[in-house]
Write a structure and sequence with these properties.
- The chain is built from seven helices and 14 strands.
- Helix 3 packs across helix 4 and helix 4 crosses helix 5.
- Strand 13 and strand 14 form a beta hairpin.
- Helix content is about 30%, strand content about 25%.
């Protein structure tokens, strides 16, 4: 091995180890020097005898007692945003916490029980609770940017007639063994994180509800052929998008399709096809799909109470209408078999 190559490899290893050796506080800090902290203070302007002193107020620096972090105390991470995981909810962020105002009053009946479930799942103790408010114990935030950071929260259910809301406010802050009032940037960040834990729990529950609803409505999903707005052939599933989205992977699996990737917001399902044994097709009562061991992309479209499905090959070309019609018959047969008592 050449000496220059070994020296280069050693330099890379040392650099990598140096980057990993820094503590969490260093990962929150800028890596450049802080020479600006040594900048001399402003001095009064002195004019020469007989010189007229003219001031342009457009560039005057206000004389205020500004407070805030400087140097290594500045957290360079981007602000933590409250995730929009509850449909229609509006987040109001102030100096003490976050308030989620719900778009529909009935959402609170689902959200409030989820708060307790999320805290329990994340091992957050509850020190006090009543019908509309609970206080948590210390919750330790454990990630690569934080060392021994913990916080307490008060979560309040707000009821203003038709307007329902959920308030998350920080009531305690601890770094290591030292308790103090947190900097505003930390209070905002870790209050938003706790709010996101709750909204993510709500989103998970809604997805699970949709999955269960899909199982209940499986008998009510007729499959047929149709046309999209451009006149191209598509498969039409007479079920809402959320219902059919949850049901589709199981149906595809019966037909020999393996789901490799899914994107719910874009409505895409990446699959690979492997033809099942003849006994599978005999059970379904249809001719086998002759599609080869290829990859395909299913594109789902939300038609309110129906769902459209188009299929393209690995080159992005839509399947011929005859092949798409065969896939439609296969989907219909798989759904019919899955709802039968013997299956």
């Amino acid at each position: 091995m050449k000496l220059s190559y070994r020296l280069g490899l050693c330099a890379i290893v040392v650099a990598a180890l140096s980057a990993c050796s820094g503590g969490a506080s260093q990962r929150r800090q800028a890596q450049n020097d802080f020479d600006y902290l040594e900048t001399p203070g402003l001095e009064a302007w002195h004019t020469l005898p007989g010189q007229e002193f003219v001031v342009n107020r457009a560039y005057e620096i206000p004389d205020v007692n500004a407070t805030g972090a400087v140097g290594s105390g500045v957290d360079i991470r981007p602000p933590q945003q409250v995730l929009a995981l509850i449909p229609g909810a509006r987040a109001d962020v102030d100096e003490r916490g976050v308030t989620l105002w719900l778009a529909q009053p009935g959402q609170m009946d689902t959200l409030w029980p989820i708060v307790s479930k999320v805290l329990k799942d994340d091992s957050v103790s509850v020190e006090a609770v009543d019908n509309n408010e609970l206080d948590t114990g210390w919750y330790v935030w454990s990630n690569e940017d934080d060392d021994s950071i913990a916080a307490k929260y008060r979560i309040t259910r707000l009821d203003r007639g038709e307007l329902k809301g959920l308030r998350v406010a920080m009531t305690g802050w601890r770094e290591g063994n030292s308790q103090s009032d947190p900097q505003a940037i930390y209070r905002d960040r870790y209050t938003a994180l706790m709010t996101n834990l709750i909204t993510a729990g709500y989103d998970d529950q809604m997805r699970e509800n949709a999955r269960l609803e899909a199982l209940k409505l499986v008998k009510q999903i007729p499959i047929s052929m149709g046309k999209d707005r451009g006149g191209l052939p598509v498969i039409i599933a007479r079920a809402p998008y959320e219902v059919f989205w949850e049901r589709l992977p199981d149906v595809l699996g019966q037909l020999g399709f393996t789901v490799e990737d899914r994107n719910r917001s874009q409505g895409t399902v990446e699959v690979k096809y492997s033809r099942p044994d003849d006994e599978v097709w005999e059970k379904l009562g249809i001719q086998p799909l002759d599609m080869g061991g290829k990859k395909f992309t299913l594109q789902l479209g939300d038609l309110t109470n129906r769902t459209s499905v188009s299929v393209a090959d690995s080159d992005g070309k839509p399947l011929p209408e005859e092949t798409l019609s065969a896939v439609s018959r296969a989907l219909a047969a798989a759904i019919e078999v899955s709802q039968s008592p013997q299956s």
